[in-house]
Amino acid sequence: MLPILIFSLALTGYGGNEESMISSAPAHPTGVNSTETTINSGQINVDNKNQVIKSVQATVETEPVPVWGDAADDIAIWVHPNDYALSTVIGTQKKGGLVVYDLNGQQIQYLPDGRLNNVDLRYHFPLGDEKVTLVAASHRTLGSIALYKVNPQSRQLEKVAARTVGLEREPYGLCMYHNPSTHQYYVFVNDKNGTVEQWEVFDNGSGAVEASLVRSFRVGSQTEGCVADDQLGQLYIGEEEVGIWKYSAHPNSEEVRTQVDTTEPGGNLTADVEGLTIYYGEQGSGYLIASSQGDDTFSIYQRSGNNEYIGTFQIVANQAMNIDRVSDTDGIDVINVPLGAAFPYGVFVAQDGWNSHPIDKQNFKLVPWEEIADAFGLIKFNQKVSIEK
């Protein structure tokens, strides 16, 4: 979800499918007549190098969310500015609020603020006389965007919205975007009808966060998962029954899009397409990762170029640590920063829709990044790095 730029790196391993891809332009799909669409046909209906589903294990799971049922959903990883081991996982309890966990999975804050569905964050947001980490969440109870800042001393969230940002439609998915050239910050919200709105967020001059609608467009059908690539200026959206689309993240761009992958035969996804996240590397390298909820797996793509497909993995049970497998996943997030001894190369976090051993309320599972990187020969970082926000 969030962009981390890398300096002074120690890299280990790199791999991926090097087959080229071809783009073609089909007719416009129903409901999005103003959108120009292309298909990455080179990675659809072809044999990929990594057809075998790789298996990885979580080494930490969070405490369950406070209520039963389909309650846990999305997460955002916050990196502590001074001690990376004190970083946190911010999770939505979509029936009633937000939960903040430490890297041991212990709850350190619960905010009963309403039905908050998806969450994202960006660093160095100018607010008053300081730079803060801004956290945004889709607020289905109020039909608005909930806004917070992270208190780095307590690691807890504090409200910063200037007002209730009223939306025309009930929000569902959400992600954030920071344009490093213009220094503007944005929040994307979408709904179950496939409408996407882009809101600029800014200091209102009194130390609170205001928002202004700058763009609106339709994807086609129900959407939720999305992620923006700050460095490349791209927005990825999961159309749940269809696949993954790539748009420009700039508010004044034309509605031109490319289909990254599909749930149709020959694609690498099984509906629903849910959470999306980006693992950042140097000079445009790194990976787009998607939750393929229908078959309890996660698909990996190159971040750059035409997002060629790399492979698929699943999170199986860790019997030694008494952590169950991950299934029916909604939100995911990943970070490339070493987060102490438990996660020396960073961490991948996934919502678990069925917390089964023992049977309990839903929670989130944490997988060391090297488990995934080593399975596919991907890049990983093993030194502390500087964070540009």
Q: CATH superfamily, called what?
A: TolB, C-terminal domain
The main pleated sheet reads as:
6 strands, mixed
- Output the CATH class name: Mainly Beta
Unreliable spans are: 1-34, 44-50
Description:
The chain has 389 residues and is an all-beta fold. It has one domain (35-376): Neuraminidase (6 Propeller). Helices cover 2% and strands 45% of the residues. It has one helix spanning 369-376, and strands spanning 23-24, 36-40, 54-57, 60-61, 72-78, 88-93, 97-102, 107-111, 116-127, 130-139, 144-151, 156-159, 174-179, 184-190, 195-203, 209-218, 223-229, 234-239, 243-248, 256-262, 273-280, 286-292, 297-302, 309-316, 332-335, 347-352, 363-368. It has a six-stranded mixed sheet with strand order 1-2-20-19-18-17, with no helix packed on it. The protein is globular. The relative contact order is 0.20.
